[in-house]
Amino acid sequence: MRKWLLVVLSVFLAMSMALVGCGSTEESSTPAESGQQEGNSETETGSTGENEGQGGTMVFGRGADSKSLDPSQVTDGESLAVTKNIFDTLLDYKGQTTQVEPALATEWENSEDGLTWTFKLREGVKFHDGTDFNADAVVFNFERWMDPEHPYHQGNFPYYGYMFGGYKGDEGHIIEEVKKVDDYTVEFKLKRPLGPFLNNLAMSPFGIASPEAVKKYGDKFGENPVGTGPFVFKDWKKNDTITLEKNADYWMEGAPKLDRLIFKVIPDNSARLTALQSGEIDLMIGLNPDDVEAVESDSNLKLFKRPSMNVGYLAMNTEKEPFDNVQVRRAINMAINKQALIDAFYGGLGVPAKNPMPPSLWGYNDSIEDYEYNPEKAKELLAEAGYPNGFKTELWAMPNPRPYMPQPQKIAAAVQADLEKIGIDAEIITHEWTPYLEKTGKGEHTMAFLGWTGDNGDPDNFLYVLLDKDNAKGPDAGNIAFYKSDELHELLIQAQQLSDQAERAELYMQAQEIIHEDAPWVPLVHSTPPLAGKATIQDFAPHPTGSDKFTHVYFSE
Amino acid sequence: MWTYIARRLLMLIPVLFGMSLIVFSIIRAIPGDPARAILGEKASDEALAQLREELGLNEPWYIQYFHFLGDLMRGDLGVSIRTGAEIAEEIGPFLAATLELTFVAMLIAIFVGVNAGIIAAWKQATWFDYISMLIALIGVSMPVFWLGLMEQWVFAKELQLLPSTGRYNVREPIEVVTHFYVLDTIITGNWSGLWDVVKHLILPGIALGTIPMAIIARMTRSSMLEVMKQDYIRTARAKGLNEFWVNYKHALKNAFIPVLTVVGLQTGLLLGGAVLTETIFGWPGIGRYIYDAITYRDYPVIQSGILVVATIFVLINLIVDLLYAAVDPRINYK
Predict the structure, then answer these.
(1) DSSP H helices in B1-143
(2) How confident is the model at residue A54 (pLDDT cuts 50, 70, 90)?
(3) Tally of domains within chain A
């Protein structure tokens, strides 16, 4: 017995020594090898992109595949991230902001009453199939989206209905008519003014598709997308890769610089990072917060932070005791240590939230002072509210990570501990993701974690959707605090009907004050999701919406 | 034998019928509405109601079931409710990816497992026996995701010997014919592509093959030990036969039947159970396809996907049963 144990142990020892030996030789050989590999890829780049002096292939690693490449039919980020590069919109977002700038439309103006918008279109632009982009194409696209009777209104157009109040024939539908004035002028007639109108048009779901291609492919257009964008769709291997190639006739001078853009699915975050480190991919989203340090310390890699356009929050169901009491809600706001959450679970990549909308949006009220983290004071408030010994309640936590909350279960446990300090005994409840949304939408919870990622960069898209009384109705409430304030409602509706951004911003500032006072949520964090890429990537500026256009991106030597 | 095969194939019908009923009822029993799963946080009441209507989810379950069966009879696997894609069209490449990987994993598992088992039995109670059975024990209990991540770390990141993810180098696309990339590169004569595809198969193949390898090794060893006690082995030895032939020819033949059973079952398991390996290695296989469908409550994909896997499982077991006859002449199917 003892003898064979000895044998086993000595073999292990021998193996581990052999491994250590390998380790040291590995280290010495790795730099040479990787250097060689880089050399190879450089010569490759040089040969393919010789005429332009730039070029190369960018492989973008991500966690999941696209659903469809018809941007008007999807809501998922993984689809829009790809279509953003195949299609152009009338307007686009400027740099890393949510201000709009010209794209397929070069100029625009609004009538006095705010009901008529006139757009001048860019001339000489062609779709990837060689057909012309003009006023007819714009009219065709809008009619396809809005009119359920349109022959090519096949499938769902969720974002259209969502941003423009429904479809033709619906009571809430905002757009009366989209009209061609001449070949390169289009006019939109609205039924009532719509504050976020321009921001809406810049959203990637409203990418202008080739009418000929839509007619040709019908309900298979989502697998054969044709737009005017910087890259042309080439090939889609489901759950694996989507390959786009450079649009040599792109309307923007000298762009795009890359020859090919490939989106590759690698579901596991750690495996994706390994693929980046071994050179199989060039850029990745979904970096684990724990891996941020490894990327920062690697000279071959670079960390990119996506400006936040989201909010992770803890909603308190104001219809249920004791959360109908504003003192209790404020006490909970004081009990949670947000900075500690960011340091522990976001890898430091996030900012504490004091408002329901992120600071990257215009209209953000920075003069509001957040409730300070102060358990003692929180306890006093609770006592004043009539709960000197705290109470028992439930704390609902999401089952899976979301961009605004990378480690929901651990965050819930930390918040649970924070609450315990002021005498609140909270039991953590979890459901699978879909049932979780259903149950919170119906208001079955008392306290629940959730979050939101913005769509169009307009404050309305946060405040109205998440906190207006219009949306505090089951079974699919967006306002899961079921917070109903008439004062707030009036402000938000008024802001929806103005088109002057400065006036609107003023109203949203006031709205945030009211929300702060009433404290229906504990706004927790605006996360800045990290991306990692090769150090040679240039001019890549991740956009807060989560979809990036690779028009100007290139590799340096 | 042909009547036997025909009979077995006929038995597929009740098996698949039962299977479809079970799958159909289970996925409807779990909470979560597909419309909600598809629209996520951004769902409005109207959008949800409209989508439910379109997906036919408002109909009673038995009507939905008969629709599903009717479509199946016509060879129509249905349409994914999430993406709107034809499942019959979409599932082919996923199935090919998984079959290719499973084949390689089983090749590794059988080659290493059987040899390790034979030698361990042959050299019973020696250090080789102890070590290989210890490794086998570790192998059976090894978490696949951990093994996969370790492989990637060592062979892709540190040594830069093998690629860590995917089926081929996406920078050098290969021409697709059958979706079995090894075959495709051979057909098109793309030899550097073949080498690339083979390199991509090694790490996931090992990760996926480790558990079956360990099971096969243990099975082979115990089965061999059983057979080695029999009289005819003693006779063979008495005739002065080389110990190698005694083991690899005479003993193995009789010891192989239970091993074959394990091989068949394990192959079937790998087909549907490769989700973890497919996730870590970014392998676009059928396990992940079905798993994702479950997350999205994509009923048609779950139903049809599981039926396809079940069919292949049954077919593999049929092949295994037929192989019994090939290995052991005493077994004869009538």
Answers:
(1) 2-29, 34-39, 45-54, 61-73, 87-122, 127-141
(2) low
(3) 2
Single-letter residue type at B195: W
Interface of B with A in 154-173 (CB under 8 A): 156-160, 163-167, 169-171, 173
**What CATH number does the domain located at B90-327 have?**
1.10.3720.10
Provide the residue range defining the domain that includes A130. Answer: 2-17+50-251
Same domain, A129 and A204: yes
Residue among A353, A543, A365, A539 nearest A457 (CA): A543
Write the CB contacts of A37 (distance below 8 Å, at least 6 apart in sequence): A279, B160
Judged by a CB distance cut-off of 8 A, whether residue B289 touches chain A is yes
Give the residue carrying structure tokens 């581990």: A16
Q: What is the pTM of this model?
A: 0.83
Q: What gap in Å lies between CA A154 and CA A73, rounded to an integer?
A: 9
Please count the residue pairs, one from chain A and one from chain B, whose beta carbons lie less than 8 angstroms apart: 166
Instruction: Give percent above pLDDT 70 in chain B.
Output: 97
Closest CA to B166 of B83, B101, B89: B101
Say how far apart CA B280 and CA B274 lie, in whole Å: 10
Q: Are residues A232 and A343 in the same domain?
A: no
Q: Are the beta carbons of A67 and B82 separated by less than 8 Å?
A: yes
Q: What are the residues facing A263 on neighbouring strands?
A: A60, A242
- CA neighbor of A287 nearest in space, from A458, A62, A135, A121: A62
Interface test with B, best of A27, A436, A437 (most B CBs within 10 A): A437
Give the span between the Cα atoms of A38 and A45, in whole angstroms.
10
In this complex, which of B36, B167, B279 lies closest to A240 when CB atoms are compared? B167
pLDDT above 50: residue A1: no
**Maximum CA extent, chain B:** 85
Helix/strand/coil percent split, chain B, to 5: 75, 0, 25
pLDDT digits (tens, 9 = 90+) for A268-299: 889 999 999 999 999 999 898 889 889 999 99
Q: Quote the ipTM score.
A: 0.86
CA B258 centroid distance within chain: 19
From the centroid of its chain, how far is CA A533? 19
Give the pair of three-digit tokens for residue B69: 């069966």
For chain B, domain boundaries: 2-73, 90-327
HSE, side-chain direction, 13 A CA sphere, residue A201: 22
Strand-pair category, A283-284 with A530-534:
antiparallel
pLDDT tens, residue by residue, A120-163: 999 999 999 999 999 999 999 999 999 999 999 988 888 888 88
State the Cα–Cα distance between residues B172 and B160, nearest whole angstrom: 18
